[in-house]
Amino acid sequence: MFHVGGARSALYNWVLARQQQGGRFVLRIEDTDTERNRPEWVDGIISALTAIGISDKDPAFEGPYFQSRNADAHREAASRIRDVGRAYYCDCTRDQVIARTGSQHLGYDGFCRNRGMALEPGRALRFQTPDEGMTVVDDVVRGRTEFPNHAIEDFVIARGDGTPVFILANTVDDIQERITHVIRGEEHLSNTPKQQLLWEALGAAPPVWGHLPVIVNEKRQKLSKRRDKVALEDYLAEGYLPEAMVNYLMLLGWGPGDNVEILPYEELEALFRLEDVTKSSAFFDVKKLAAFNGEYLRNLTAEDFITACRPWLQAPHAPWDMGDFDETVFRSVAGLAHTRLTVLGEITKYVDWLFLDQPPYDEASLAKAMKPGADSILRSARDRWADTEWTADALKAGLEETAAEHGLKLGKAQAPVRVAVTGRTVGLPLFESVAVLGRERALTRIDTAIRQAVGHSPA
To answer: Does residue 292 belong to any structural domain of this protein?
Structure first.
């Protein structure tokens, strides 16, 4: 699963790299936790990045690098920090620390700082933070942030078995890969002073930090996979265009400043400035995303729209047997659907009735349209349609006559006919699409609806 927040961070990093002369976007797979890493997950990350335009074919792309393959450098860095007196060995358990401090909420108390212990199995290596002063993080997004050193506990950089922890491995990899900018979510800000101390202890100048605003749902809660749809793959699977996703994600915390929001990627890339990213939380508005996507869909050419729809017209999305699908029929109605879709996945509900033996009756639609008297409207419409020229204009004229006969507006007379033929109360323009369905199939469906409505064959 590629979180939309991660996709937003990746896009900002990508744009920033492409804006720099010789800039690089480095993909690193932090795979030291074998239980949380699988080869197929790496493929998923690369696939998701490719979908939003971050391609390993671009010169700005570098990697993927695998953190686990740099373990020797991580261990060497831990030893070097120990050798210069910036770290010490500790055998304290968490229970012992709690017993000494009297609190479960206080950090490590520095008990082993001056014990001078040598390396032995089970002893962790702790970084010794300064007792006084401030660690200052200059953040492009959030500004100057000061962290009192006395509030930063002496944190573990290597476990009791000698394996370096993530915060050290991450710093070492950043230094080796010549990372100049670290752009990520604001939830990582609390770890930044520790990382900055490690950069300095290893003799390197810290990178430019940029912590992006948290993305929230409509209740202003941080997006969570437990309650929100957060996977980029899920949105793409529903039929959101990658171009629309990129445009929308770029605006989660930043804007071009001219009140124009829907822009091609090239313009977004040229206009983006990291220092213009806001500190305020960004609302992930699914309705707005759908509106963006609808706009992108409408801007597709007719042929591109048909091509984009194809995956949803095939198994496993299509509810019809593939032998019943007719490309010519679909092309005849594609233009009618083009302006109505907000996501490509909706295409099947607009056209399924054309390729199924029976329309997919929706119970709510039946209850709404098939009220007392509906059978009379259906009979009248059928009689007129049985002999009329089979064109959209003639079909409309026949139903207008039926409406007048029953003292109804066209929309009221149209409702039971639409449900009888298509199975739903809403859909494509009725007369144009029924003309494509054909006379025999349309009349057969009206006959079936009459029988269902009154319990006997039409007179």
So the answer is: no
Note whether residue 335 is domain-resident: yes
Cis peptide leading into residue 64 (ω within 30°): yes
Q: Which of 225, 288, 368, 371 is catalytic?
A: 225
- Cβ–Cβ contacts within 10 Å for residue 354, how many? 23
Residues 329-373: pLDDT tens digits? 999 999 999 999 999 999 999 999 999 999 998 888 888 888 899
* Distance of alpha carbon 271 from alpha carbon 264, whole angstroms: 11
Where residue 425 sits, what CATH number does that domain have?
1.10.10.350
Which residues are CB-contacts of 270 (< 8 A; sequence separation ≥ 6)? none
Given 325, 355, 385, the domain boundary residue is: 355
pLDDT at position 37: 66
What domain range is 415 assigned to?
363-454
Q: What is the pTM of this model?
A: 0.90
Residue 349 lies in a domain: yes
Say whether pLDDT at 36 is over 70: no
**Residue 29: beta bridge partners?**
66
If one counts the domains in the chain, the total is 2
Torsion of CA 414, 415, 419, 425, to 10 degrees: 120
Phi, psi of 104 (to 5 degrees): -85, -10
Say whether 412 is catalytic.
Answer: no
Contacts of 31 (CB under 8 A, 6+ apart): 37, 42, 66, 67, 68
Helix (H) or strand (E) holding 146: strand 143-148
- Decide if pLDDT at 455 tops 60: no
404 and 444 fall within a common domain:
yes
Tell me the pLDDT tens digit for each residue of 38-57. Answer: 777 789 999 999 999 999 99
| Residue linked to tokens 């940029």 | 210
Residue 251 above 90 pLDDT? yes
